[in-house]
Design brief:
The protein is α/β, with parallel strands linked by helices. It has two domains: 3-161, Rossmann fold (3-Layer(aba) Sandwich), CATH 3.40.50; 171-243, ProC C-terminal domain-like fold. 61% of the residues lie in helices and 12% in strands. The termini are far apart.
Length: 312
């Protein structure tokens, strides 16, 4: 089995390294393409094959991950369409790019699963949401989920929910790291060495998350078990509320989701523009052919007249 990646940026690298680390595939089973030499070199160091040619990757792959920017997805899909095989399962991690957009470009019969992963899959702690296209079988889902679950957890959602998934877990590691950093800064302010503060903050965030995953208690109930009357945590929570902590996080998730919707619109517009350009180019070719035919007839008519004059 060959697993291909069109686009080998940060997210693709996290997925590839995670799959290799978890022994889902051997490095030599992976083939990827990217325009950036640094990205290709980075993957080659893992033992994967990395090339410039997107078509070569698409042609060789049993499972093809699309991991390119939404602004260029339309041109990439147009490029690889001629070499795509019906046997290839397409898994897209391109933010905001709909299943319909991919099917319009590659063909209505293509099997497409759309995924929003996140970078902690690099260490086997990813959180991914995915949605299936109407051609996708349960067997396809089993394969895709096997890959995703090997580097964390995955949940199936409707495609309409993937923008919210993007704002929550797709961008979420950045929120958690910012929280950890801010907690450590607070510790430093109060006299802790930087390394000690960062270690305590990181373990606290990770431990709290693991407590929820193991108990599945409501976060409010978990918090109540920590907050004691007139204690340090109750005063700290009041300070967070005064400064709009909860609203800031909610707004961050909302902003990420809305940007995902914007990216979807950009990808669809790029596809429409490309289609319009193709129609215009075809029309121009037809017009040039008609003009050439007319010029040929005109030249033939002139030659005929000149022959007639000569005979007189």
């Amino acid at each position: 089995m060959s697993v291909g990646f069109v686009g080998a940026g940060r997210m693709a690298y996290a997925m590839i390294r995670g799959f290799v680390n978890q022994k889902m595939v051997a490095p030599q089973q992976i083939i990827a393409s990217d325009v950036e030499e640094s990205a290709r070199i980075k993957l080659q160091k893992l033992g994967a094959v990395c090339v410039l040619d997107n078509k070569h990757v698409a042609k060789q792959s049993d499972i093809l991950f699309l991991s390119v920017k939404p602004q260029i997805i339309s041109s990439v899909l147009k490029e690889i369409k001629p070499v795509m095989s019906d046997r290839t399962l397409v898994i897209s991690v391109a933010a905001g790019v709909t299943i319909a957009t991919i099917q319009e470009a590659l063909g209505a019969g293509v099997r497409v699963i759309r995924v929003m992963p996140n970078t902690p899959m690099l260490i086997g702690m990813g959180a991914s949401g995915f949605a299936r296209g109407h051609n996708v079988t349960d067997c396809d889902i089993k394969i895709a989920k096997g890959f995703l679950d090997s580097v964390g957890i995955s949940v199936e959602t409707s495609e309409a929910s993937l923008d919210a998934v993007t704002g929550l877990s797709g961008s979420g590691p950045a929120y958690a790291i910012t929280l950890m950093e801010a907690m450590a800064d607070g510790g430093v302010k109060m006299g802790l060495p930087r390394k000690v503060a960062q270690t305590l903050a990181a373990q606290t965030v990770a431990g709290a998350a693991q407590m929820y995953l193991e108990t599945e208690k409501h976060p409010a109930a978990m918090r109540d078990e920590i907050v004691s009357p007139a204690g340090t945590t109750s005063y700290a929570m009041h300070a967070l509320e005064k400064h709009g902590f909860r609203n800031a996080v909610i707004s961050a998730v909302e902003a990420g989701a809305l940007r995902s919707i914007e990216l979807s619109a950009l990808a669809q517009k790029a596809g429409a523009d490309m289609a319009a350009t193709a129609v215009k180019d075809e029309s121009l070719k037809n017009n040039e052919k008609l003009s050439e035919d007319l010029a040929h007839k005109f030249e033939k008519s002139l030659n005929h007249k000149n022959v007639s004059k000569g005979s007189n």
